[in-house]
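This part of the workshop introduces the protein records we will be handling. An example says more than a description, so a record of this kind follows:
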Amino acid sequence: MVSTRRASTAAAVAALALSGCGLTLHPVASRPADTPTQSPAHPPTLAQRAGRTHELATPAPAQTAAGGWRSPVEAVQVFATTYINWTATTVATRLRALAQVSVGQARAAMTLAASQVHSDGTLARAGIGNSGGVEAIGPVRGHPDQYAVVTREQTTATNTGAYAGLQPAWHVSLATVTRVPPGLWVLSAWQPES
């Protein structure tokens, strides 16, 4: 009778394991905390991942831009020209306008910069301004949709001598463009390098 009971218990355990009920026995100490207990053929469900990580991954909503340009180079040219030409009274407005016609990192960077300069009274008190021109735009080899932008800029101040005699300076930025509906180009990343 004892051997029959052991045999039926063993058969029940084997049946459970073979039935795919998800019952797998792993010693807790030998399994890394982030390793799913299911096989690759049965990845964890969204609810299981959320329960394990306490996060629910959701895709970012698609960003739209309030305009764009017909070519990548035109998008970079207009963006860079707007970015480098400002006065203390126009800088926040210009940055917000650039954020509206950008997506991704470029939008986030322009939005953040606009909020920072809006609350910075130093620019207005000193009458600081920047002006310049885009001298060159060229594609970055091996990086599709990325362009190197060379500008020559001069910063001035009307109410302080801090910028007196400052000569124009060369600057390099990296601009990444992306296509948005209805087939226009906008910046998705803007990274001043110097």
User: Anything to note?
Assistant: The two ends are 85 Å apart (CA to CA). The mean pLDDT is 81. The first strand starts at residue 86 and ends at 87.
